[in-house]
Amino acid sequence: MSSIEFRKDLFADERVEGLKEIGKPTIRQDILGHVTGRTPYYDDHLFDGLLHMRCVRSPHHHARIRSVDTSAAERMAGVRRIVRPSDVPHNLNTLLSLINFGRDDEPLLQPKKASYRGEPILAVIADTEHQARAAAAAVRVDWEVLPHVLDVEEALQPNAPTVNEVFPDNTFEYGPYDHQKLRFGDVETAFAASYRIVEGRYQMSPIEQAPIETCGAIAAPETNDRYVCHTSTQALFFSLGTTAKLLGIDSSRLHFIGGTVGGGFGGKVDSIVEPMAVLGAVLTGRPVKFMWDREEEMQVGAPRGAERWYIKDGVAQDGRILARQFTGFFDSGAYTRLSSYAIVKGVGHLPGPYSIPNVSANVYCVFTNRTPATAMRGFGITGVDFAIECHMDKVAEAVGIDPIELRILNAYRDGDMKAHRRLAKNTALIECCQVAAAKARWPIGAGSSSASSLAGGGERALIPETVTDTEGRVGERRQGRTATAPPRKGTGRVAAGTAGKAVVAAPPQRPDMVGDPERFGRKMGGPVPSQPAPAPMIAQPQPRPGGPSLPAAFTPPTGFAPAQPQPPSAPQPPTAPQSAPDAGPYQPDQPFQRGVIRPGASRFVSGIRRR
Amino acid sequence: MAKTPVRFTLNGSEIAVFVDGGANLLDVLRRGVGDLSPKIGCMQGTCGSCTVLIDGAPHLSCLTLAEAIEGRAVATAGGLAQGPNLHPLQRAFIEGFAAQCGYCTSGMLLAAKALLDTNASPSRDQVIEAISGNLCRCTGYEPIIDAVLTAAAGMRKEAV
After folding, report:
1. Would you state the pLDDT for residue A6?
2. Comparing C-alpha atoms, which of A73, A94, A85 is closest to residue A112?
3. Which of A38, A41, A210 sits opposite B137 (nearest CB)?
4. Which of A18, A216, B58, B115 has its CA 20 to 30 A from that of A140?
């Protein structure tokens, strides 16, 4: 019944045959409940005396709260409790604090300044949903409306309003920089040697996950001084840890039941509804349901963040892409949630599934007065892939090459070095292109038809000599010293390599899959490993036969001050490799290992509290 | 709040409940009667996850006034199976991977049942039309349409 086609002729020698389950259709283990209506979603748990919670939300994109008058709401029928920001014991959180990444920047209930339309500032608990809704509507708020910013590049202007006081520059901070960097090779030199420069601007929309079951949770006091919480969450332990942190409750007193999700697609990881429901149960001693209605799901449910990408390619006459430069702006909305991580993931994915010897990226996680963005189906990847594949078509047109053949020509092959310094393995883009062309009856040349992911790689396994810079230090842009547009040629570039002795930014991957800190990147200009220095690979896909030698267009490193490029006729003598930039906030020795205590780590990291 | 007594049959069983003035059938079924198979998706008549059959015709229970079902016959997905024997639609949904999260499935099944009860050999377009009021975010609809057609073929075979 499945419409998936298995092409067993491809990579036959890499496939394990005789598997009993994988690669074969199988009946879902939970489907009997689905077709009989007996699958217990969070709202399918009945409690006597259930109370209902509704939020009072900001009608403005950006507004300071002057005063709140709840006197009318308190007197309304059925109202049990007004929940205020002061009722939240630890009213500041960021989702990834549970893995010690980022700064707490978002209150559960906003006490001072709403930064997006729909931000909750109060909640009302009443006997029926209708009563809670009426009482929430009766709360009077005196708003001081502030100027707002809804565009990512406008938010980076020096005079833009500050969206989120925790990040006054309107960007998340990656170590000392206000953007995530990727540097691999030297794009500027390669651009100069290119036959064509192809530039493009790509803008994605925010996309709501829109599950049919809206986000919600029911919490109730149990008989053993614990609270049970039935929740729609996709991330039960995120929700548990976040609730424990926000409410100052030991996680051992929280009994979370979830995993039966009525559609998630990433929109149910943010752990907003669970702390609210448990807080309601704590304050009233009664079962409390907090369920977003459809309008809330669409308005305040965190979407896939909109991304804006500028891509600039330098292309050789035969269609090989010699250099690719990205400037990305990721609309995080008013708070961080998971956008910071999406960018780390997305930058690791650049420049797409292609072997390009020179790649550079500056990607900004920008705060705007829009709904906070979060996970959705490949977030951080899908958006930039859309941009990359549109751009590939544009490149094909610019150099007059068939778009599928252009992809086959530039595709990763097994053994190629990727820009994030991992060797490409199990690549299959060439075969996918060949199958797609055959299915579409799209004629491709004999060379493209006979290409293989298994051949031709390996020659491109070396890490090129890499040019780094200090552009975009935190705070510089606010002082008007850094442009927000794609970096202009020559601004702030410092050569990291030295003649005759290449600087390797990070060692190539180990053969095993053990997590090591290098895999998390941002080791640009780090100490040179003791292994033999690979040959530089600049503006061409194969290493030079003459061994390591430097084009003369570099300025030697002069520390981290921005330097102007020297004219090519004035090569400088080599100097020592520059030192590593400051360590960022997230460079664990043993990433994601349970119970690792790092300096300054949250005590709510899963596993620690239970010891 | 004024309560009104309402009597109706639910999946063949007689039910009598007191309902609040203005209460909708979905809340009464779920919280009043305890049949949790109709789901809350939008409470505004757009998603179809609360679909029930009233006297055999599909209705959105979130937009149906509970007092209006006095004396009528209501069918939900919880009553589709006859004891341990699944309805052919349920079997086709299982075998055809026509559900992932399962949240829309109750409504889908009832919309499809209403079609097959009146049209034993629907065309693909008629199936699409019949489930057009039911949103599914997981499956992409194709497996659901296939499953309804498979069930229809199976039921025709059994009837011969």
Report:
1. 73
2. A85
3. A210
4. A216
